[in-house]
Fold each of these.
Amino acid sequence: MMATMDVHHIGCLSEEDSWFLFRQRAFTTGVEEESHIAIGKTIVKKCGGVPLAIKALGSLMRFKSHESEWRNNSYSYGWQMDLFPLKTKMIFKELVWRSFLQDVEINSKGDVTCKMHDLMHDLAVSIMKHETCIPEYGKVMEIPKTLRHLSFDIPSIWANLDNKRKLKFPGDGSLRSLICHKDKLTSYEVDVSSSLLKQRNLRALHDQS
């Protein structure tokens, strides 16, 4: 025999339960500093009752002993979603299911918008910052040897410099994804050199030309 089962909608945790869960993860040694408690409650409030966010942030704070480190995580909002430009439908659905992404909406044109909790995004960035790089125009950046994902823009000002730019990539073939954006009004030629041919592990290549 077959029968339908009732759907149980899981809501967010209460403020009390959220704090209890956070304490379990953040204060494993049993030592709870007054300053850490105050900041911790601020972090928990921003998690909005999402268990995954609370557990992740609690686990992260477990290894931070200084008050300044706790405050930095409490007030960190400077990251951009553009740091992770590659999304597949499968990964997107998985992230939604696990509460990494919320408030998913689809407009009449089929464009999908969503939100990622600030603290959850900060956690993702802290994990990926040594593997992901987005160079900023006018700034010199040291490309880490552990680089796996590279995304960069070709501004229109390059047209005033010369018509050809040479790009070099990690020599050990560690690059997994490469994304190149450009101004629609810019005409350019990029010499990727032989270093790109060594990227045997490259899985995603996007050249917006």
Amino acid sequence: MQKIMFLLVPLLVAGCQSTSAPSKQTKQLENYTHLVCQVKKQNVGNFSETIIFDKDYQTMTIGDETLSCTSDKYKNCVAKLETPTGYKFYTVSTYTYKYPGSGYLDMAEINNKMLVNASYAELECNRR
């Protein structure tokens, strides 16, 4: 029994030391021009439109309206759309370190100084 232990212990120690750590994944060039987000789960409200960001998060397109992002955070867009009787406010945060990416949308619509619509939705975002 002791002979078997003397043979197994060095074998186990050598085997444990020879296992290599997983190699780090190299960063690939990001060759996309837009980020397209769609509602994955509606938590509050009824927002269902597709959101398209340019690669640098300078603009956000919802429907046929293109809005300028005013947030200074990367991958976070705060925008305001004037309507005839008020405003629509949007805050969209995206996380694209995993594929497909995810995100969150907050939207509030104010007409005649009253809140008339609000939405909070989880998004799925894909590079295109």
Amino acid sequence: MEAIREGERLKYSVFVAEKKFDVEVIELSPTQFEVVVNGKRALIEVSRSLEIKAKASEMAKKEHRRVEKAIKVPMVGIVTKILKKEGDSVKVGEAVAVIEAMKMENQISSPFEGVVEKVLVKPGDKVSSGDTIMILS
């Protein structure tokens, strides 16, 4: 088995009975992961008891399935501006919010492309490192 880490993504090459499977694991939130095996995608949710739940119907959907993408803040701070609203398109690297930390304003950029499905914070909210502030689909 080979493993390669690329930021939030883990890529594996797994061999079973001399057959190769390319596996990619993408962390969407602390309890939600997207797993891609040879191009087939599935959402995996891990509950508090660490029981893994995979929805078989999602494994069957290939091309047209929507995947939630969680935008997280990398620092403790206070939300000062929300730059995108629900329904807005977002490109990779585009600023979606501004967080004040240590008297400096820091733009939070999206690591994903998508459409804002839900904004989870508002100006004045305190956030901690790793908190999800926005979900894209």
Amino acid sequence: MPTEAPVKTPTKTPTEAPEKTPDPEKYYSPKRLCDDQKRDGGFRTAPQK
């Protein structure tokens, strides 16, 4: 019983967690774009990579 539990948990966690985190951050950060747009007024958003 204590073997099937830790095997089903670390399998769905490290697969759905690291794949959903570096995905949006590696492509385009919606939180960073919002901060840049609010700071620059929507001017320097793309060239500020």
